[in-house]
Amino acid sequence: xxxxxxxxxxxxxxxxxxxxxxxxxxxxxxxxxxxxxxxxxxxxxxxxxxxxxxxxxxxxxxxxxxxxxxxxxxxxxxxxxxxxxxxxxxxxxxxxxxxxxxxxxxxxxxxxxxxxxxxxxxxxxxxxxxxxxxxxxxxxxxxxxxxxxxxxxxxxxxxxxxxxxxxxxxxxxxxxxxxxxxxxxxxxxxxxxxxxxxxxxxxxxxxxxxxxxxxxxxxxxxxxxxxx
Length: 228
Fold this sequence. Notes:
By secondary structure, this protein is an alpha/beta fold. It has 2 domains: 4-24 and 94-225, Rossmann fold (3-Layer(aba) Sandwich), CATH 3.40.50.1000; 26-91. It is built from 9 helices and 6 strands, in the order βαααααβαβαβαββα. It has helices at residues 26-39, 48-52, 57-67, 74-91, 99-107, 120-129, 153-161, 176-184, 214-225; strands at 13-16, 112-116, 138-141, 169-173, 188-192, 206-208. A 6-stranded parallel beta sheet has the order 3-2-1-4-5-6, sandwiched between helices.
């Protein structure tokens, strides 16, 4: 499927990405990367923000050090990146447009999970601060044997915990890295946000500008009404 034809189908479970999908943290990651480069007196190469989007924060720290020509600073930059990000989240937690309404509608009838490349405490803190954590039955993150996106591990695990087949579940993602992860897990995928310019965005079944899309919200109401 490559069109709004997905709206003729009903998911049995939904697994959301967190950063940039549910919570407006992608700008915080970007600001944290800028702060971190500045702390070390370094500057990113052009296009770095796009290359870093959706990448696990430890891999991002390594990427930052390599691109700055300072691979020996990988560990220090990774720690600084996470510290700066957490400070920014604490200052300004905000949901993405339409995210809260979609989650609340879907949670009335479907099992919901989160699959993220971020550490568990970061994801849970972000979701708790915007009042959404309680809607999710499972929060699955990379680590403890689960490889980060674009590997399928976090999505495959979330689907299994939701007790549905992968082809019955839908992932909601804002990055090509995440879309690839969900596809490898055998899921249908709804992309959201600015459509990525690099290849891979067409792997999503549909790409919407925002979760506040009226047709998407109306579709979600049909899930909530199925057992009302």
